Amino acid sequence: MDLELSDEQVWLEESINTLLERRWPAAESAWQAGEAERARLWESLVEFGLLGGAGNDLGAIELCLVARAVGGHLAVVPLIGSVAVRYALAPFAAELPDDFRALQTSDARLAIGLLEPGGGWSPSGVRATVKDSRLTGTKAAVEHAAVVDYLVVVALVGAEPGLALVRRDSPGVEWGDQPALDGAVPLSRVTFGDANTDAVLSGQLAQTIIDRLISVGGLLAAAEAVGASANIFSQAQSYATERRQFGRTIGSNQALRHLMADLHVRQASSWSTTLYAAAALDEGIPGARLTGSVAKAYVSRSAREVAHGSIQVFGGIAFTEEHPAHRFLRRIILREQQFGDAAHHERELGRTLAATANASASASGINERVAA
Amino acid sequence: MQLTETASERALADEVRAFLSGQGVRAEELPHELDDRMALLQRWQAACYDAGYVGRTWPVEFGGGGRPPVEQIVVDQALAAAGAPEFVNIVGLGVLGPSLLRFGNDEQRRRYIPPILSAEEIWCQGFSEPEAGSDLASLRTRAVQDGDNFVINGQKTWVSWGQYAKYCGLLARTDDTVPRHRGISMLIVDMSAPGVEVRPTTQITGHAEFSELFLDDVVVPRENLLGELGDGWKIAMYTLGHERGTAALPRQVKLRTWFDRAVSAARRREVDGRPLIDDPEAQAALARALIGIEVLRHHAYRTAGEFLQGGAVGPESSSVKLLMADAEQRLASTVLEVLGPTLQGGDPDDIPENDFWYETYLYSRAASVYGGTRQIQRDIIADRILALPKE
To answer: Is A206 on the interface with B (CB under 8 A)?
Structure first.
């Protein structure tokens, strides 16, 4: 048992933060950045080694450190899709079709197609379908659809969800802008009309990889939200030590001191649970998927609470468009919803608890009968 | 980071489990009568000490095991997971023993620490007073120097196991002429000394784990001063931080065993012919309780990292304390809501289980009060982590 980040991990996050400071505008004005700035940042991240390859793949802990830094700077890059897919595939490289395996050593930008109009974040409800290697269906909230090289789409293969690899420029793939709360992050609705697939995964292997994809995707979304909430909270902290009302510094009021102490607890424990769940995923600990649900559920509520509390500390100024608070709030809500919000994961956990309790009860019933 | 236990950690946990299956005592099976309970718990701690499970990380020269801190975590978690009761000399182990190690002289450490570990001598703490609760520095109990002795007069409350304690680590005012935090000293008081009177306090649970302590011209030799004169506040803050920082890991295991017990009750009990666990609202409520316990574990692990490297327990222990109180109270309240009408259904089979949950629920209300209230923890975070201006 070793519960601390390694020197290399600490160095990694510092390096990413330095890179973001040099290659990305300040968080306050990041929403104005265009595709040219996004592409430039992405190139630097890839150059840094974000996509791994050649035995240098980053683990979920390292990827969460990167995502936290990205969230803190409100950076906009096709990070989650590009790294989550590779992370999900990595342990199964030997069993993958060539085109999927080739992703691991390429610089291709990837987007995930999971959510569907009228559907939820659980893969069991998807209606997009692969038939004879061709994909038909509609996906929502696909990130960076205009610039990615591939779409990795959860779709039915036969009766079960599988994973289809589709070139974004394949005939039959069409996308249109989708309005989002965080306008800085480009989301699209993508339709697939009998689109050609490069490769398809199905069966148990696909199921395992999809679960892993959703787990790590949820943790990266959580880590990004933690980064964003850390930044706005730290700004609120500074403000509380400077702003004066009633002849005193507002941060000296017990109401605000206690509010901010609670926000600190949420903030610090959100990061702890994200890191723990990432470590569980990296080590393949049994129940890692449920631990991921715990983390995503907790951070989904907590990051928003930290943003809300920070806005309350700022007061009216944080309700202006000019103030950056809402930029952070928007990013936090965007990531809260992706890969399942708190209610989604609480229901999942609750169902699993009930199923496990019922299963172990009937198993021990069998044992008792055998013993009798 | 490495969550997976190493081979030696796994071997140690297996060893503890084997020990427990041989002679384990379960918290739920303790005698109700307090004297019997106490005697059994003392024997139990002694057996665990002999096996090397108490004070595992403490220095060998004072009766400890001299092992790395991670081993105590492995042992504590294995004990808690098996439903073993908490060690009865909890104040000695969690509060005053660490203070003796840090601030005591060698003579004091050699004299007092081994019987703390073996539970031969139970310790209590004399910190709170009727007029000095959260505002501990306003305490009025006075120790006046008289030659080679101190003479103590005053009153203390919330003295854990006061009626069974051999020694009390007591905070008393020794100097009125300096700012109040600096005029307090820590003294080791023999509970059998003339002038010491103990009156047990019955809590809302019906048990009497705490006492009031009355001190009337109690004479304490000067050699029983811990640290220097006026060090009392510094020592108390260290010990309370230590208690907060190290209690969470075994506590979260205990909460997890209670949680599993709640799920099992919700599966067995039915309302209108339907098991409670099949209700989606009950499932989500239990999931939220589990999330509280899990996040406590994750955060306690991360903050323990520093402690495991031999560092001091810092103000982040206040975050752990707040999460611990939240997790315990949420669990206890959730169980009452989930079990709902079955609690008053009068089914004779349910009654012992109902009693357990009622007691757990009532006890949970103390979680945000003892060891520094929720509000005091928030103040510590505001001052020492967020560096917000003082009121």
So the answer is: no
Is A127 within 8 Å of A100 (Cβ atoms)?
A: no
Provide, as residue numbers in chain B, all residues whose Cβ is less than 8 Å from the Cβ of A349: 283, 287, 290-291
B9, B287, B302 member nearest A349 (Cβ) = B287
Distance CA B257, CA B81 (A): 7
CA distance A304 to chain B (A): 17
Q: pLDDT 10s per residue in chain B (391 long)? A: 788 889 999 999 999 999 998 877 888 788 888 899 999 999 999 999 999 999 998 999 999 999 988 888 889 888 888 889 889 999 999 889 989 999 999 999 999 999 999 999 999 999 999 999 999 999 999 999 999 999 999 999 999 999 999 999 999 999 999 999 999 999 999 999 999 999 999 999 998 889 999 999 999 999 999 999 999 999 998 888 777 767 788 888 889 999 999 999 999 999 999 999 999 999 999 999 999 999 999 998 888 766 665 556 678 889 999 999 999 999 999 999 999 999 999 889 899 999 999 999 999 999 999 989 999 999 999 999 999 998 7
Residues of B in contact with A345 (CB under 8 A): 287
Please report, for the domain that includes residue A280, its CATH number: 1.20.140.10
Whole domain around residue A352: which residue ranges?
Answer: 206-357
Q: What CA–CA distance (Å, rounded) separates A205 from A163?
A: 10
Mutate to test the interface with B, among A272, A293, A356 (most CBs of B within 10 A): A272
Q: Can you list the domains of chain B with their CATH numbers?
A: 7-118 (1.10.540.10), 123-229 (2.40.110.10), 234-385 (1.20.140.10)
Domain presence at residue A87: no
Q: Which of A5, A268, A285 sits opposite B319 (nearest CB)?
A: A268
Q: Inter-chain contact A353–B287, Cβ cutoff 8 Å?
A: yes
In a domain, A172, yes or no: no
A346 and B288 within 8 Å at the Cβ level: the answer is yes
